[in-house]
Design goal:
Structural class: alpha+beta
Shape: globular
Strand order of the largest sheet: 1-2
Number of helices: 5
Number of domains: 2
Number of strands: 2
Strand content: 5-15%
Largest sheet: 2 strands, antiparallel
Distance between the termini: 39 Å
């Protein structure tokens, strides 16, 4: 049996077919780059669907108000701001959907917290995922 990694997505406007056949002597770097390209697309779709589920505009506005910078202190303060009351209150507000059960709301809150942390770190100009690595030969996803 061949060793392969396959990913097939056929969902709304997202059609993606990625396959990698693992052959003897293949560099682990090749597998790593393949998986990084998968992760990038998946993360983007998670955030896109989060935005379809709740109103991320309110959270984005609150995050945009947070002062960021590149020093350790500025990054630390920016991350602390994510756990402060104003961000938590917005997350509670936008995830409190009447048709959801308590555990579903908690799950959405956690997705929002991860979203907020990633957005803050990106605002601080830190590399937050593998999409920011320039891999020779790997195409960047086109932004519409």
């Amino acid at each position: 049996m061949d060793k392969t990694i396959q990913f097939i997505a056929n969902y709304d406007d997202w059609v993606s077919i990625k396959k990698l056949k693992i052959e003897p002597g293949m560099e682990p770097k090749t597998v790593m780059e393949f998986l990084a390209s998968l992760g990038t697309g998946i993360d983007k779709k998670v955030e896109e669907n989060l935005g379809k589920t709740i109103d991320l505009n309110k959270l984005n506005k609150e995050i945009d108000e947070i002062k960021t910078g590149k020093t350790e202190e500025e990054i630390s303060e920016a991350l602390k701001a994510v756990t402060k009351r104003n961000i938590s209150a917005v997350i509670k507000e936008i995830t409190s959907l009447p048709d959801l059960q308590k555990n579903e709301i908690k799950e959405l809150e956690e997705f929002c917290k991860v979203y907020a942390v990633k957005k803050i770190l990106k605002k601080c100009e830190l590399m937050i995922d593998y999409s920011e690595i320039k891999i020779p030969g790997m195409r960047k996803t086109k932004v519409k």
